[in-house]
Specification:
4 helices, three-stranded antiparallel β-sheet, Protein Transport Mog1p, Chain A, disordered C terminus, seven-stranded antiparallel β-sheet, alpha+beta
Length: 214
């Protein structure tokens, strides 16, 4: 496992001077670009990983852990996939949906929530909810319900997946098509930025999101 020192420093020092309980911005360099997002108040970095093809960062509330969480925020990057012209955000989300369905003991709810641009880059959003997992999968326990809000962003060369997941009781997902924007607001602004941009520069380059033409 190789974790660049700059990666750690940017995560910890993205917003200097914040007080406990106040929101802060996390700057996460991942391969050729970097994700910038609002780190929810009283959340912390729980896991960092990078190899030659994959980069991961996971956040949990301070009173939870990577192995015992009720909510988790994950940022994943996959090197080089965005150079494939036929591979779009919807393709990435359908692949995630298929993998999730294969581990779900009950019918998986999958709702496409719409395509947008994030700083001019194609993105798509999907809600996935499994009432009960057939086995331990992606941090969830067998016979436990999980619900995740997934955002796929196609960068210049690499693909980025941001997902906010919660554990849920059977048939009662906390995130729904009606309230998902409330959960998105916890991590917004969400930006894909150029290497070396600090938070101020990245926010200055922000472009309004707008529906993606189909």
């Amino acid at each position: 496992m190789r974790i660049p020192l700059a990666f750690l420093l940017l995560l910890l020092l993205a917003t200097p001077g914040v007080q406990a309980g106040e929101p802060r911005m996390a700057v996460i360099p991942m391969f050729t670009q970097q994700i910038v997002l609002r780190q929810p108040p009283d959340w912390e970095v729980a896991y960092l990983y990078e190899d030659s093809t994959t980069s991961l960062a996971k956040f949990v509330p301070t009173d939870q852990s990577l192995f015992d969480w009720q909510e988790i925020l994950s940022v994943d990057a996959y090197k080089g996939i965005a150079t494939q012209s036929t591979y779009g955000p919807d393709t990435m989300l359908k692949a995630i949906q298929g993998e999730y369905a294969s581990h779900c003991a009950s019918p998986l709810m999958a709702v496409q929530l719409g395509a947008e641009y994030i700083n001019g880059y194609d993105s798509d959003t999907m809600l996935l909810s499994c009432p009960a997992l057939a086995e331990d999968f992606d941090g969830g326990m067998a016979d436990e319900g999980t619900t995740g809000l997934y955002i796929a962003v196609k960068g210049r060369q690499d693909f980025y997946v941001i997902h906010y997941s919660t554990r849920s009781s059977h048939g009662n997902p906390p995130i729904t098509p009606q309230n998902y924007r409330d959960y998105l607001a916890l991590i917004q602004p969400l930006l894909l930025c150029e290497p070396g941009d600090d938070v101020t520069a990245c926010l200055a380059h922000q472009r309004p999101s707008r529906p993606q033409a189909k």
